[in-house]
Amino acid sequence: MNYTTKYITTTLLSCALSMSVLAAENPFISAYQTSDTPNLEIQQERISGIQSFSFKSFDGEVVNGQIGYPNAKQDKYPVLIALHAMGRSFPRWWNAEINGRPTITKSNEITTIANEKGFAVIAADARFHGSRKSKELPLSKIITDLRAGDRAAYDKMITNTVKDYKLLLNWIAEQPQFEGMPVYTVGYSMGAQMALLLSAADDRISNVVSIVPPNVETTNAIVSPAKAAPFLQGKDVLLITANKDEYSTDSEFANLFDAISSNSKIRVVHDSGHILPAEYTEVLDFWYSKQLNVQNTHN
Known about the structure:
The chain is α/β, with parallel strands linked by helices. It has one domain: Alpha/Beta hydrolase fold, catalytic domain (Rossmann fold), CATH 3.40.50. 31% of the residues lie in helices and 21% in strands. It contains 9 helices and 12 strands. The strands form 2 sheets. A 10-stranded mixed β-sheet has the order 1-12-11-10-9-5-8-4-3-2, with helices on both faces. A two-stranded antiparallel ribbon has the order 6-7. Strand 11 (236-242), helix 8 (250-259) and strand 12 (265-270) form a beta-alpha-beta unit.
């Protein structure tokens, strides 16, 4: 792989998990516990392999999203759950631009890579985003309050969105086309935060890619990536970071990586800000190929 960024540091560590971590009760499982399986209303789109869906979540809120299958038909598909950044929406995982505005996170390229590897990609709108915007509580108000030190609305948005995805996981587990197949997560920024939380909360997820997750200074542990990190044992973790990120320092990223309790983890560091260089997605081509090869070997 060729990279044109100033430098990239990749670290692969094997860590011996302490008995205290293994024995500790995982608060994310109980915090995000869901038992219901939603009834998805699925509509086949005109584009081949694309299905839109909606379902009612645990509190009656409607969740909207999309499933994108590979062009090549398969009996069964591994699943990639994709979580978007703040201010974005699920269509960004499929579109290089929307209404003339480019997808600067390059999330659409991740979907292309995943589909080429045989994944079905599933994404939904976070609360207060995209099709779920609220006039009563606009996202701009949530962000303003967050910057002023009031985290209540932001934390609730995060926790309830993760619960939405937990319900979606329950549905995935019952679909014959996904039966017995691995489930991965990927997220950018806010989505990277939620990917770590969701992965800590659900053993059905075996692999997580977290791209520039924000550092979260909060007493509310169940929204903190750093607090989730010790509960990622047994999962393959790729942490992609930037050394000039506006929302997390390089040392904070390093501390997060050190806290991840997995014996299969890699950290990639880009010489950039929060918006990574366009070619950062190259590592995902390698990552998904490698992980699926390992999975197939184990099977």
